[in-house]
Amino acid sequence: MSACADPASLARYEARLQRVIEHVHARLDEPLDLMRLADVACLSPYHWHRIYHAIYGETLAATVKRLRLHRAAGELANTALPVERIARHAGYPNLQSFTRIFKSVYRLPPARYRAAGDHATFRQAIAQADGGHSAAEVDIRHLPALELVVANHRGSYMQIGQAFDLLYGCLGARGLLRPGMRSLALYLDDPSAVEAAALRSQAGVAGSVPMDAPPAPLQHARMTAGPYAVLRHRGPYASMNAAYRWLFGTWLPQSGHDAADAPVVEEYLNNPRDTAPADLLTDICLPLKPD
User: Fold this and answer.
1) Do the Cβ atoms of 167 and 203 come closer than 8 Å?
2) Which residues pair with 266 in a beta bridge?
3) Ranges for the HTH araC/xylS-type domain (predicted)?
């Protein structure tokens, strides 16, 4: 972004694309209508989608497909809803087309994913009360404090991607995205004790963000230093609930450690826009009280 960029013009573009992101997330079940979204953005129907693609790195159709399949994977992993109903909810006219597309992205057909996805390993360990390493390795690390620029999110943790879209759109429009930036999220509430609509979280980046006062609605946040239990999760974000249940309900009580009064942090080690869900790597960082 050049030094002569007009801040007011930049803010207008950000606000317009933010309206598109909010519209898509709120109406994920509706047909994708690029002309309608051009009206939402108050931008030229001939050019607004090119602007979106340039800033977010994928077409809007790819965004909608990714979000619908992410939701479907969560429903398969975490609910007993019939697969046919999940297919309709994802916008597919029949089970055959849903199965084909889901398998092409998640590498397993829906029913097989429900029965044998990565979440199944953690569920088996929970059922066996296995606090050892049968489900995954947990490392105890001392992590340094991190200064973050974040976008706040309120609602289901499954939908924090909306806050990341806002964060990266704002930074990208200002030319502030840098190689080596780290993507993290802070989860401020216990989803077993707080209604999904009221859950608070923050989507953030760390590393070379030269902003003393981030533009609204972005703000600063801090990851506290200290010991953390780090569980590296490989696989879709949508199936991480079972890993959390194992970490908190099985590993922690048997570990000899106590959880500290600080948010759980997730660090995302690759990009869901260009990485297959089965290859996504996430470090789940549970803060611990010092020994």
Assistant:
1) yes
2) 185, 284
3) 18-116
Predicted TM-score of the model (pTM): 0.85
Contact yes or no for 125/134 (Cβ under 8 A): yes
Q: What's the Cα-to-Cα distance from 159 to each of 111, 164, 212, 220, rounded to whole Å?
A: 23, 10, 28, 21
* Tens of pLDDT, residues 176-202: 888 889 999 999 999 989 999 999 999
Structure tokens at 259: 């959880």
Please report, as a single letter, which amino acid is at residue 272.
Answer: P
Mean pLDDT of the chain: 88
In tens, the pLDDT along 97-135 reads 999 999 999 999 999 999 988 888 887 777 666 554 455
**Whether 153 contacts 200, CB under 8 Å:** yes
Best CATH choice for the domain 63-116 from the list 3.90.660.10, 1.10.10.10, 3.40.50.150, 1.10.10.60 = 1.10.10.60
Count of alpha carbons within 13 angstroms of residue 236, beta-carbon side = 29
Write down the CATH superfamily of domain 138-287: Regulatory factor, effector binding domain (3.20.80.10)
52 contacts: CB under 8 Å, gap ≥ 6: 17, 20, 59, 60
Structure tokens at 226: 């200290």
Could you tell me how far CA 122 lies from the centroid of its own chain? 20
| Alpha carbon distance 265, 40 (integer Å) | 34
